[in-house]
Amino acid sequence: MVKIGSIELPEFPLLLAPMEDVSDPPFRALCKEQGADVVYTEFISSEGLIRDAVKSTMKLDIYEKERPVGIQIFGANLDSMLKAIDIVEKSNPDIIDINFGCPVKKVVSKGAGAGILKDVCLMEKLTAEMVKRTNLPVTVKTRLGWDHDSIRIVEVAERLQDVGCAAISIHGRTRAQMYKGAADWKPIAEVKNNPRMHIPVFGNGDVNSPERAIEMRDQYGLDGAMIGRATIGNPWFFKQVKHFMQTGEHLRPISMLERVEAARRHLQMAIDWKGEVLGVLETRRHYTNYFKGIPDFKPFRTRMVTSDHSADVFAAFDAVEANFGDYQFV
User: Fold this and answer.
1) Among the four residues 64, 94, 277, 327, which has the most C-beta atoms within 10 Å?
2) Does domain 256-324 match CATH 3.30.460?
3) Does this model's pTM top 0.90?
4) How far apart are CA 232 and CA 31, in angstroms?
């Protein structure tokens, strides 16, 4: 069993990573249904929260069916981060997660996200003060370091643990790598194998098959996997990994009818939550993976990702079901 604070999770839990414009309530609901053990919100700006920015406050919406759910915030100003904690607590999440890993320039340029990897002392101080501010477990998501020459993740993880961090998720790339090259899990294993570490250490980056999840567990000895890009348009990934772990066999392919139904539900939940315009726009990125590998599918996909009206997208789903309902995935 793995524990984050008092939250009990199964052995080698699978966590849905916080992803901007992806990890919203509709997608989290689908992933939870398919076996995600913990889900995280999109990352939320502490400055946006304290200024009551609509885009930031909307991301605080969480639902009982998602639990345990973590709200992730980012920022580099201590006062703003502490005020953000007070706001976040009102949404009653199970976990508060600090983003010390986002590599995007507009975040890093403000010293937040992976930008804080240049200042480990500030990273430690922010974590310590946020832990003091709340009774909820505070976790951290970070990267190996700023660049290859500044990797100090074993020390960083130990320092964060010592000031009260309840779990740490580590992406196996530096900020300089962004999302290029292969994720390196060896430094994450070094964190886990540090005899002073006693909090859960989760791996992140390139968990794109059930076999890779098994490798992270058995070869690298990590406590769980935080999974991001492999789940986009594929909420079944969690179920596929768990089935493989339990049986050593791959789950049967997800049928076309199941895929169409999931896409329909996803779009409808997105519209219900964020309205027609954003609901249509922000589900587009999922359709390529929902219907990946189907021959002669381009006209249908184009219709899905270019239409601005949900009625057209739903009609495209109907057309897919009519034309490809018997398609067999392998």
Assistant:
1) 94
2) no
3) yes
4) 10
